[in-house]
Amino acid sequence: MTHFETKAIRIQSERTLEREHSVPVYLTSSFVFDDSEQARAMFAEEIEGNVYSRFSNPNTSELESKISALEETESAFATASGMAAVFASIAPFVKSGDHIVSSRSVFGNTHKIMTEQLPQWNISCTYADIRDKSSWEQAIQKNTVLLFVETPSNPTLDVIDLQWLSGLAKSHGLLLVVDNCFATPYLQQPVKFGADLIVHSGTKYIDGQGRVLGGVVAGPRDKIKAVKNFVKRTGASLSPFNAWVLSKSLETLAVRMDRHCDNAEALAKYFQTHPEVINVTYPFLDTYAEKDLAKKQMKRGGGLVCFEIKGGVERGKKFIDSLKMISLTANLGDTRSIITHPASTTHSKLTKEERKLVYVSDGLVRISAGLEHIEDIMKDLDQAFTKSKQA
Ligand SMILES: Cc1ncc(COP(=O)(O)O)c(C=O)c1O
Hints:
Blueprint: H1 4-10, H2 36-43, H3 58-71, E1 75-79, H4 82-88, E2 99-103, H5 108-120, E3 124-128, H6 133-139, E4 144-150, H7 162-171, E5 175-179, H8 184-187, E6 197-201, E7 215-219, H9 221-234, H10 240-250, H11 253-272, E8 277-281, H12 291-297, E9 304-309, H13 312-322, E10 327-328, E11 338-340, H14 352-357, E12 364-368, H15 374-390
Helix pairs in contact: 3-10, 13-15
The structure holds pyridoxal-5'-phosphate.
């Protein structure tokens, strides 16, 4: 199997004696040993096998095999959510007194890990600017052990040069962790540019239908062993049912992502010519500052588009309240198109100055293009532009 689509479909748990075509859900907390010697050997990790579903389960193992095949890493470990994956990509590799450099443009709870959780254990973090390479170089200290970045970033869709960043990490002996949630392995495989660990929120495009939470960390065997030990001891393992949903969803990731990209591209062009829009951000758009870099790292521009509506925070809120079909919800990567206004929601606790530092302007609106017909998505946007102007 060489092609992405085939691997996403055909990597499967071994067929049981029932001869099923589609892999069943293994809802079992533990597994039975043949005898006491096998139990001893499995606990001692002398032989491989399922012991307890917090450690492994056929459904989580299938998902992990698929993700590592799709990300082209040696191994992967599934977690209960994307945040569990973010934390598990850091916690096993740091100790008291260590220092991390992270992009400032990271998801809200990742920001909390960096600024509130890790400092509780005397692990400090310096933020670097995703748009300024020199800030990364300047942030590295003697005790730095890890670099963390999201690319494209949430919500402003900034991309960073992964080849350059992994070179910087290697020259200082640091681990590079990349949150690849917005691109998915279909659009971007960070290991090809030298990243060490890849993090996913499976909750987004991997599920793709807004049903379950899940996460995964992918990377080299020894590092994933450390991630697995950390998660199996601390407990944020993925449930077999959620693993089954996510693995089934991966079967259609390629076709879904292509359609998400088609719709997002069409929306980006639509916003570009709209008189009520100040500017549009979409990684493959001609006007996108890092278009060449985005095209080097990503197969397509992704399913998210940002635009700035005329009229700031108030207009942004009115616009969203005028939508009839597009969902206002705290997720992305769903079949249903989703809208968010970061300044009044996810980034509302930041001061105006702090929002400026992460490039979130008052009128910024983020759309996760769903899989509805593009004409229906545009029709909803059209009427909301008109209604919010009149209100
Ligand atoms: C880029 C990114 N990373 C991580 C997460 C966390 O994922 P989860 O909600 O599955 O814990 C999110 C969630 O929105 C995200 O957008």
